[in-house]
Design a protein that fits this description.
Layout: E1 8-13, E2 17-21, E3 27-30, E4 35-51, E5 54-66, E6 79-82, E7 85-95, E8 100-108
């Protein structure tokens, strides 16, 4: 894939790690360190579904990034931010042999 296609900046944040427990025995989480990388962005589809009696529009997208050991650890538990919008990651797969990683995600349309 041409380097020119990796033109969109995304931020991926791993889930926090447990650093102990508070007085109520609830976990105290240390936030993960965000990783910024360039990606190829493709809008997949727009959809609408009913939730709690209201129509909710979602925007699905695919982000392709270059493979790296850090990005190979991305799972659906990570957070993805792109152009000021948070995305829920639904799938992560490796393309080729350590060539690219494709992240499928969706965001609620405002």
């Amino acid at each position: 894939m041409s380097a020119a296609l990796y033109s969109r900046l995304i931020t991926l944040t791993p889930p926090g790690t447990e650093a102990g427990r508070d007085a109520f025995n609830a976990p105290i989480l240390t936030p993960g360190t965000p990783v910024q990388t360039l990606a190829d962005f493709r809008a997949v589809s727009d959809g609408e579904k009913m939730q709690s009696g209201e129509v909710m529009a979602t925007m699905a997208a695919r982000f392709r990034v270059r493979w790296s050991p850090t990005l190979a650890a991305v799972t659906p538990r990570w957070a993805l931010a792109f152009e000021g919008r948070g995305y829920d990651i639904s799938g992560v797969k490796e393309l080729g042999h350590r060539d690219q990683i494709e992240i499928t995600a969706s965001a609620r349309a405002e």
